[in-house]
Amino acid sequence: MTDEILTERAGAIVRVTLNRPEKHNALSRGTLDALRELFELHREDDTLKCAVLTGAGERSFAAGGDLVDLAQVRSEDEARAMSAQGMATLQAIREFPVPVVALLNGDARGGGAELALACDFRVAAATAHIGFIQGHLNISTAWGGGTDLVSLLGPQRALAVLCRSELLSAHDAHAAGLVDMVAGASELGEVLDTFLQPLLGQKPQVLRAFKALANAGRAGQSHSALQAEETSGLVTTWTHADHWEAADGALASKTRGARSDDRNQT
Protein backbone atom coordinates (compact mmCIF):
# COMPACT_ATOMS: atom_id res chain seq x y z
CA MET A 1 0.00 0.00 0.00
CA THR A 2 1.45 3.39 -0.98
CA ASP A 3 2.05 6.17 1.55
CA GLU A 4 -0.11 8.34 -0.73
CA ILE A 5 -3.07 6.77 1.10
CA LEU A 6 -3.17 6.74 4.90
CA THR A 7 -5.54 4.59 6.94
CA GLU A 8 -6.52 4.64 10.59
CA ARG A 9 -8.95 2.42 12.42
CA ALA A 10 -10.91 4.30 15.09
CA GLY A 11 -13.38 1.97 16.75
CA ALA A 12 -15.93 0.93 14.14
CA ILE A 13 -14.71 3.57 11.66
CA VAL A 14 -11.96 3.25 9.06
CA ARG A 15 -10.52 6.66 8.20
CA VAL A 16 -8.88 7.00 4.79
CA THR A 17 -6.78 10.04 3.88
CA LEU A 18 -5.49 11.06 0.46
CA ASN A 19 -1.94 12.04 1.36
CA ARG A 20 -0.59 14.16 -1.49
CA PRO A 21 -1.00 17.66 -0.04
CA GLU A 22 1.89 19.04 -2.09
CA LYS A 23 -0.12 18.12 -5.20
CA HIS A 24 -3.48 19.13 -3.71
CA ASN A 25 -4.28 15.41 -3.30
CA ALA A 26 -4.51 14.96 -7.07
CA LEU A 27 -5.51 11.49 -8.23
CA SER A 28 -2.85 9.71 -10.26
CA ARG A 29 -3.51 6.29 -11.70
CA GLY A 30 -1.33 4.79 -8.97
CA THR A 31 -3.30 6.61 -6.29
CA LEU A 32 -6.56 5.37 -7.79
CA ASP A 33 -5.32 1.78 -7.71
CA ALA A 34 -4.16 2.11 -4.10
CA LEU A 35 -7.51 3.58 -3.08
CA ARG A 36 -9.43 0.76 -4.77
CA GLU A 37 -7.23 -1.89 -3.13
CA LEU A 38 -7.77 -0.34 0.29
CA PHE A 39 -11.56 -0.32 0.05
CA GLU A 40 -11.54 -3.87 -1.30
CA LEU A 41 -9.30 -4.92 1.59
CA HIS A 42 -11.71 -3.62 4.23
CA ARG A 43 -15.02 -4.66 2.68
CA GLU A 44 -15.10 -8.05 4.44
CA ASP A 45 -14.56 -6.55 7.90
CA ASP A 46 -17.98 -7.16 9.44
CA THR A 47 -17.15 -5.06 12.52
CA LEU A 48 -17.02 -1.81 10.53
CA LYS A 49 -19.91 0.63 10.69
CA CYS A 50 -18.65 3.29 8.29
CA ALA A 51 -15.68 4.73 6.41
CA VAL A 52 -14.56 8.36 6.28
CA LEU A 53 -12.61 9.58 3.26
CA THR A 54 -10.76 12.90 3.40
CA GLY A 55 -7.67 14.70 2.13
CA ALA A 56 -4.49 15.79 3.86
CA GLY A 57 -4.10 19.49 4.58
CA GLU A 58 -6.73 22.20 4.58
CA ARG A 59 -6.80 23.32 0.94
CA SER A 60 -7.89 20.27 -1.02
CA PHE A 61 -10.00 17.17 -0.61
CA ALA A 62 -8.91 16.13 -4.09
CA ALA A 63 -7.98 18.50 -6.89
CA GLY A 64 -9.00 16.01 -9.58
CA GLY A 65 -6.87 13.89 -11.86
CA ASP A 66 -3.10 14.29 -11.69
CA LEU A 67 -2.48 16.25 -14.91
CA VAL A 68 1.20 15.26 -15.10
CA ASP A 69 0.37 11.56 -14.90
CA LEU A 70 -2.69 11.77 -17.15
CA ALA A 71 -0.81 13.73 -19.82
CA GLN A 72 0.49 10.33 -20.90
CA VAL A 73 -3.04 9.22 -21.81
CA ARG A 74 -3.39 10.10 -25.50
CA SER A 75 -5.09 7.42 -27.58
CA GLU A 76 -8.72 6.29 -27.49
CA ASP A 77 -7.68 2.94 -26.01
CA GLU A 78 -5.63 4.65 -23.31
CA ALA A 79 -8.52 7.00 -22.51
CA ARG A 80 -10.91 4.05 -22.18
CA ALA A 81 -8.45 2.22 -19.93
CA MET A 82 -7.97 5.29 -17.72
CA SER A 83 -11.73 5.75 -17.45
CA ALA A 84 -12.23 2.08 -16.56
CA GLN A 85 -9.50 2.28 -13.94
CA GLY A 86 -11.05 5.31 -12.24
CA MET A 87 -14.55 3.84 -12.48
CA ALA A 88 -13.34 0.64 -10.79
CA THR A 89 -11.95 2.66 -7.89
CA LEU A 90 -15.06 4.78 -7.43
CA GLN A 91 -17.25 1.71 -7.83
CA ALA A 92 -15.37 0.01 -4.98
CA ILE A 93 -16.34 3.02 -2.85
CA ARG A 94 -19.95 3.05 -4.05
CA GLU A 95 -20.27 -0.67 -3.36
CA PHE A 96 -18.52 -0.58 0.01
CA PRO A 97 -20.91 -2.51 2.26
CA VAL A 98 -21.30 0.20 4.91
CA PRO A 99 -21.81 3.97 4.50
CA VAL A 100 -18.88 6.06 3.26
CA VAL A 101 -18.69 9.72 4.30
CA ALA A 102 -16.59 12.18 2.31
CA LEU A 103 -15.12 14.76 4.69
CA LEU A 104 -14.45 17.73 2.44
CA ASN A 105 -11.63 19.42 4.30
CA GLY A 106 -10.97 21.50 1.17
CA ASP A 107 -11.89 21.76 -2.48
CA ALA A 108 -13.19 18.81 -4.51
CA ARG A 109 -12.57 19.67 -8.14
CA GLY A 110 -13.20 17.69 -11.32
CA GLY A 111 -12.32 14.08 -10.59
CA GLY A 112 -12.25 15.03 -6.91
CA ALA A 113 -15.91 16.03 -7.16
CA GLU A 114 -16.61 12.67 -8.79
CA LEU A 115 -14.82 10.96 -5.90
CA ALA A 116 -16.89 12.91 -3.38
CA LEU A 117 -20.16 11.90 -5.07
CA ALA A 118 -19.12 8.24 -5.11
CA CYS A 119 -19.39 8.41 -1.32
CA ASP A 120 -22.79 8.11 0.33
CA PHE A 121 -22.64 11.37 2.26
CA ARG A 122 -20.60 14.59 2.24
CA VAL A 123 -19.68 16.78 5.21
CA ALA A 124 -17.85 19.96 4.16
CA ALA A 125 -15.83 22.70 5.75
CA ALA A 126 -17.42 26.09 5.10
CA THR A 127 -14.27 27.10 3.22
CA ALA A 128 -14.44 24.11 0.87
CA HIS A 129 -15.78 24.15 -2.69
CA ILE A 130 -17.05 21.42 -4.98
CA GLY A 131 -17.03 21.76 -8.73
CA PHE A 132 -17.61 19.66 -11.81
CA ILE A 133 -15.15 21.83 -13.73
CA GLN A 134 -14.12 19.26 -16.33
CA GLY A 135 -15.45 21.55 -19.05
CA HIS A 136 -12.52 23.92 -18.42
CA LEU A 137 -10.24 21.21 -19.83
CA ASN A 138 -12.64 20.53 -22.69
CA ILE A 139 -13.51 17.08 -21.36
CA SER A 140 -16.53 15.44 -19.75
CA THR A 141 -16.68 13.43 -16.53
CA ALA A 142 -14.48 10.33 -16.53
CA TRP A 143 -15.17 8.01 -13.61
CA GLY A 144 -18.93 7.75 -13.24
CA GLY A 145 -19.34 11.02 -11.38
CA GLY A 146 -21.59 12.46 -14.07
CA THR A 147 -23.92 9.50 -13.65
CA ASP A 148 -23.91 10.02 -9.88
CA LEU A 149 -24.68 13.71 -10.39
CA VAL A 150 -27.67 12.92 -12.62
CA SER A 151 -28.94 10.38 -10.07
CA LEU A 152 -28.55 12.84 -7.21
CA LEU A 153 -29.92 16.03 -8.78
CA GLY A 154 -31.95 14.82 -11.73
CA PRO A 155 -30.97 15.30 -15.38
CA GLN A 156 -31.89 18.97 -15.79
CA ARG A 157 -30.15 20.28 -12.67
CA ALA A 158 -27.16 17.99 -13.27
CA LEU A 159 -26.84 19.32 -16.83
CA ALA A 160 -26.78 22.87 -15.50
CA VAL A 161 -24.00 22.00 -13.02
CA LEU A 162 -21.96 20.31 -15.74
CA CYS A 163 -22.46 23.03 -18.35
CA ARG A 164 -21.70 25.89 -15.97
CA SER A 165 -18.51 24.17 -14.76
CA GLU A 166 -18.47 26.34 -11.63
CA LEU A 167 -16.92 25.91 -8.23
CA LEU A 168 -19.76 25.94 -5.71
CA SER A 169 -19.17 27.10 -2.15
CA ALA A 170 -19.97 24.60 0.57
CA HIS A 171 -23.16 26.49 1.44
CA ASP A 172 -24.29 26.66 -2.20
CA ALA A 173 -23.49 22.96 -2.62
CA HIS A 174 -25.57 22.24 0.49
CA ALA A 175 -28.49 24.22 -0.91
CA ALA A 176 -28.15 22.33 -4.21
CA GLY A 177 -28.22 18.95 -2.46
CA LEU A 178 -24.58 18.02 -3.11
CA VAL A 179 -23.47 18.34 0.52
CA ASP A 180 -25.23 17.03 3.64
CA MET A 181 -23.69 19.21 6.35
CA VAL A 182 -21.43 22.30 6.48
CA ALA A 183 -19.11 23.24 9.33
CA GLY A 184 -16.78 26.05 10.27
CA ALA A 185 -13.12 25.09 9.84
CA SER A 186 -12.57 24.76 13.59
CA GLU A 187 -15.76 22.72 13.97
CA LEU A 188 -15.27 20.20 11.18
CA GLY A 189 -14.33 17.30 13.45
CA GLU A 190 -17.17 18.06 15.85
CA VAL A 191 -19.74 18.29 13.05
CA LEU A 192 -18.46 15.03 11.56
CA ASP A 193 -18.89 13.35 14.95
CA THR A 194 -22.45 14.68 15.14
CA PHE A 195 -23.19 13.39 11.65
CA LEU A 196 -21.72 9.95 12.42
CA GLN A 197 -23.46 9.54 15.79
CA PRO A 198 -26.72 7.98 14.51
CA LEU A 199 -24.78 5.69 12.16
CA LEU A 200 -22.56 4.46 14.97
CA GLY A 201 -25.68 3.75 17.03
CA GLN A 202 -26.67 1.05 14.51
CA LYS A 203 -25.40 -2.53 14.43
CA PRO A 204 -22.97 -3.41 11.60
CA GLN A 205 -25.29 -5.99 10.02
CA VAL A 206 -28.16 -3.46 9.99
CA LEU A 207 -26.02 -0.85 8.26
CA ARG A 208 -24.97 -3.46 5.70
CA ALA A 209 -28.62 -4.26 4.99
CA PHE A 210 -29.46 -0.57 4.56
CA LYS A 211 -26.44 0.01 2.30
CA ALA A 212 -27.22 -3.05 0.17
CA LEU A 213 -30.73 -1.73 -0.43
CA ALA A 214 -29.40 1.73 -1.32
CA ASN A 215 -26.84 0.20 -3.67
CA ALA A 216 -29.54 -1.79 -5.44
CA GLY A 217 -31.49 1.43 -5.95
CA ARG A 218 -28.38 3.28 -7.08
CA ALA A 219 -27.77 0.56 -9.66
CA GLY A 220 -31.27 1.05 -11.05
CA GLN A 221 -32.45 -2.43 -10.21
CA SER A 222 -36.10 -3.32 -10.72
CA HIS A 223 -38.77 -2.91 -8.07
CA SER A 224 -38.89 -6.66 -7.54
CA ALA A 225 -35.10 -6.82 -7.19
CA LEU A 226 -35.19 -4.05 -4.60
CA GLN A 227 -37.86 -5.92 -2.66
CA ALA A 228 -35.78 -9.11 -2.82
CA GLU A 229 -32.79 -7.21 -1.44
CA GLU A 230 -34.98 -5.76 1.29
CA THR A 231 -36.24 -9.22 2.25
CA SER A 232 -32.71 -10.59 2.32
CA GLY A 233 -31.63 -7.83 4.68
CA LEU A 234 -34.65 -8.37 6.89
CA VAL A 235 -34.01 -12.12 7.21
CA THR A 236 -30.36 -11.55 8.12
CA THR A 237 -31.08 -8.89 10.73
CA TRP A 238 -34.26 -10.48 12.12
CA THR A 239 -32.56 -13.77 12.92
CA HIS A 240 -29.48 -12.10 14.43
CA ALA A 241 -29.05 -12.26 18.22
CA ASP A 242 -28.87 -8.45 18.36
CA HIS A 243 -32.48 -8.23 17.18
CA TRP A 244 -33.78 -10.63 19.80
CA GLU A 245 -31.86 -8.86 22.56
CA ALA A 246 -33.46 -5.55 21.55
CA ALA A 247 -36.89 -7.11 21.06
CA ASP A 248 -36.78 -8.89 24.44
CA GLY A 249 -35.73 -5.64 26.09
CA ALA A 250 -38.56 -3.72 24.42
CA LEU A 251 -41.08 -6.41 25.39
CA ALA A 252 -39.88 -6.43 28.99
CA SER A 253 -40.13 -2.65 29.15
CA LYS A 254 -43.66 -2.77 27.75
CA THR A 255 -44.66 -5.40 30.29
CA ARG A 256 -43.26 -3.32 33.16
CA GLY A 257 -45.14 -0.30 31.84
CA ALA A 258 -48.41 -2.24 31.66
CA ARG A 259 -48.00 -3.45 35.25
CA SER A 260 -47.28 0.07 36.41
CA ASP A 261 -50.48 1.30 34.69
CA ASP A 262 -52.49 -1.44 36.37
CA ARG A 263 -51.18 -0.45 39.80
CA ASN A 264 -51.98 3.21 39.15
CA GLN A 265 -55.55 2.34 38.26
CA THR A 266 -56.23 0.32 41.41
Could you please describe the fold and organization of this structure?
The chain is built from 11 helices and 10 strands. It is of the alpha/beta class and 266 residues long. It folds into 2 domains: 5-200, 2-enoyl-CoA Hydratase, Chain A, domain 1, CATH 3.90.226.10; 204-265, no CATH class. Strands 1-2-3-5-7-10 form a 6-stranded mixed sheet, sandwiched between helices. Helix 1 (29-42) links the parallel strand 2 (13-18) and strand 3.
Shape label: elongated
How many helices? The count is: 11
- The succession of helices and strands, N to C, reads EEHEEHHEEHEEHHEHEHHHH
Measured as a percent range, the helix fraction is 40-55%
CATH class of the largest domain: Alpha Beta
What fold name stands as the CATH topology of the largest domain?
A: 2-enoyl-CoA Hydratase, Chain A, domain 1
What is the end-to-end distance? 70 Å
Strand order within the widest sheet?
Answer: 1-2-3-5-7-10
Return residue spans where pLDDT drops below 50 for at least 5 consecutive residues. none
What is this structure's SSE topology?
Elements lengths: L4 E6 L2 E6 L10 H14 L7 E6 L4 E3 L4 H4 L5 H19 L5 E5 L2 E3 L1 H8 L2 E5 L3 E3 L13 H9 L1 H10 L2 E3 H7 L4 E3 L4 H13 L3 H15 L4 H16 L2 H25 L1
Parallel strand pairs: 2-3, 3-5, 4-6, 5-7, 6-8, 7-10
Antiparallel strand pairs: 1-2, 8-9
